[in-house]
Structure formats: C-alpha cells, structure tokens
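Risk register update: the risk of archive-format incompatibility is retired. Evidence:
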Amino acid sequence: MPNPTRQEIIEAYDALEKLCQRLPATRAAKEPILRALPPKPHPTMAEVEWDGDKHFLAEANHPTWGRSTMLGLDKDGWIEVISWDEDGPAIHSAIPCYLVPTGKRYMLTEVQE
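Archived output:
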C-alpha cells in the first residue's frame, strides 16, 4: 500500500474538491473517496503568515519537542517556542513547517496578592 506524503494528501483533497465543483455528478462519489483517503493534515506555520496577536502564546505541536508555546519570529524567520521536558522549560527556534497549531492559546494574567 502506498504511503503518501503530507503534500500528496493535501493535493488529493484539493483535487477532489475542484473536481466536485466542476462536475456536479461527481459529488455522489465524494464521500466514499474521502473515507479512503488518509486524514487531511492540519496546516503548519509555514502555510500561515505570522500574526503576533493571533500566534503569540499559541500552542503548536512539534515532532521532537511535542506541545510547545509559540513566542515570536526570530531574525531568520524561524519561530521561537518554549517547551517542557523532564529537565524543565527550554526555548528553541523551530522551522515553521514543523509546527502544527493546536488552536489553543494561553494568556498572561496578573495575580493580585
């Protein structure tokens, strides 16, 4: 069985969508085709333009560091993230194509004592 790449899966979903828009008769076949396709990959930060208001302190998954919190862009266009492991927090520079946003965001709040 073939093992399609992330990009090939995305292209297959896009092609199916275009086909169904252009040929209404193919819409009936869409559901069985979708069931046969692997799940559509979520967009990575390489496919999204950085927006500080939206992405600062947003969570993303990284293949090596796991759940990470995005902090900002560095001078090379990589994204600074903070992740946690058994040794505690660590800051890394991540290539945007390796970060998949989870949809979660964190907020800094002031604690009154």
